[in-house]
Known about the structure:
- With 213 residues, the protein is of the alpha/beta class.
- The chain has 7 helices and 6 strands.
Amino acid sequence: MLVHDVEDGKELSKVDTPSFYNVKECEAIVEIIRALLSSRNISVNAGHIFVITCFRAQVLKLRETLRKSNLPTINVGLVEDFQGQENAICLISTVLTERHERWEKGSKAGLGFMTDSKRFNVAITRASALCVIVGKVSFIENSGSFWSALIEHVRRNNGISSTENDDNDLYGIECLLRHVGELGLLGIGHEEDRYDLAMRGYYHDSPEWKVCL
């Protein structure tokens, strides 16, 4: 699990509605996907990648940005769209960068991921190999929710990257992807290196029973 800090991002809305989008996060996600697809240390294609967010406006903005970047086949959707599904890589766009008190009362409580434990749980468990959270770390870390503990865990394991690398604990995307490659999580290594002896038979890269019709 990695976190990519987009400190200069800002949520926007076309109308007075709690459906926000964040252009800087869309651009960061394109950068990460390009790094994944071009990395020499891992082996993935566009079909191995999900992009999940919690706002319909962000889904539309992500799809638009990906199309303009010649990445139209990347699967993008809301958390609910991916419930029960799994893929090798999941990128999570958190969108929000500040609190919105008017949407935190009554039926509008739980805006985005910040206070919704079910959405949080579904989002971070869709990836079988790599989960990358894209958002404003300072806001997420100080949200006073389960996200705070998650960011703390990732930080302890040197898993925070940023386009701004002024701090000693922030590493670039390429450095983190090299680490992922070394772990053999995406296209490198063999099931014997990844699973205990008792489980190897269940996780063959090319199971004998797989057929094409």
